[in-house]
Design goal:
The chain is built from 1 helix and 2 strands; from the N terminus they run αββ. The protein is an alpha+beta fold and 76 residues long.
């Protein structure tokens, strides 16, 4: 599923996975660029979320990314 006007990346993609992979893999948020990504990522780190991968840029599509590890059941 993609939001209107965006052909670059999905916002929601659902597949059936093995039991050990249950849950959400990632969400895509659109930000203005690398500065906004760094500001947002730093805020998440200040809240205690741990970096899983990134910050960086995907080769295909050149999308900026920053993945965070979130424990199951953690709600903030």
């Amino acid at each position: 599923m993609r939001p209107r006007g965006n052909d670059d990346h999905h916002s929601l993609f659902m597949i059936e996975t093995p039991p050990f992979m249950q849950g959400l893999e990632h969400f895509a948020f659109h930000v203005e660029g690398p500065t906004a990504l760094m500001q947002s990522g730093n805020r998440l780190q200040e809240k205690g979320y741990e970096t899983f991968w990134g910050p960086g840029r995907h080769k295909m599509g050149s999308n900026w990314f920053w993945y965070f590890q979130v424990a199951a059941g953690r709600g903030r």
